[in-house]
Design brief:
Distance between the termini: 49 Å
Helix content: over 70%
Structural class: mainly alpha
Shape: elongated
Organism: Actinopolyspora saharensis
CATH topology of the largest domain: Tetracycline Repressor, domain 2
Keywords: DNA-binding, Transcription, Transcription regulation
GO molecular function: DNA binding
Number of helices: 9
Strand content: under 5%
Protein name: DNA-binding transcriptional regulator YbjK
Number of domains: 2
Radius of gyration: 19 Å
Length: 186
């Protein structure tokens, strides 16, 4: 591992370490020192790569939202018609609620920051817009907005429930929302 400013992976390690630390301890417990230690970089690297802690958090959460949008794309990109898109949405809920507790925690941390800070609210608005764009390839804009909220809500409910609901209930919820959708295929 390179130790000078020529280390091309240093900034990436810092961002990854930031997300890992937030997932484990919460954003309220994150600090430059803890992140630098976790990333294996000198403390001075933090201010070399980021203008401040807020800049680092925004970069880290931007990386996180890019990841979640890519998960949306992975599930929805191959759907050829509305029925396949409905199946993909149901699969997405189950993938998000079962596969990665880290992503669930990071999403909730971002939502908490967004509830308090306008800069993070803008980040969540952009995230929602990008997610809805994937849904709008298959559904009208109002239905896409409803499905986006359904994905968020059902994901959280499934992840936190003692006995998570099954895929049939998820698919039924998707069917109910999409029953009044505009054109049958987009």
């Amino acid at each position: 591992m390179a130790t000078g400013h020529t280390d091309p992976q240093r900034r990436e390690r810092i961002i990854t370490a930031t997300l890992d630390l937030i997932a484990e301890e919460g954003s309220a417990h994150a600090s430059h020192r803890k992140i630098a230690t976790r990333a294996g970089v000198p403390l001075g690297s933090m201010t070399y790569h980021f203008t401040g802690f807020d800049h680092l958090l925004r970069e880290a959460f931007t990386r996180f939202t890019d990841h979640i949008v890519a998960v949306f794309d992975d599930h929805l990109a191959t759907a050829a018609d509305r029925d396949q898109a409905c199946e993909a949405v149901a699969d997405l809920v189950h993938a998000l609620s079962e596969d990665n507790q880290r992503d669930l925690v990071l999403a909730q941390e971002l939502y908490t920051l967004a509830a308090r800070e306008p800069a993070y609210r803008e980040l969540t608005h952009e995230w929602m817009r990008r997610s809805r764009n994937h849904l709008e390839r298959h559904f009208d804009p109002d239905t896409a907005r409803q499905l986006d909220a359904l994905v968020e809500g059902l994901t959280l409910h499934r992840a936190l429930a003692r006995e998570p609901h099954d895929r049939a209930l998820t698919r039924e919820a998707v069917t109910r929302i999409t029953a009044t959708d505009g054109p049958s295929d987009r």
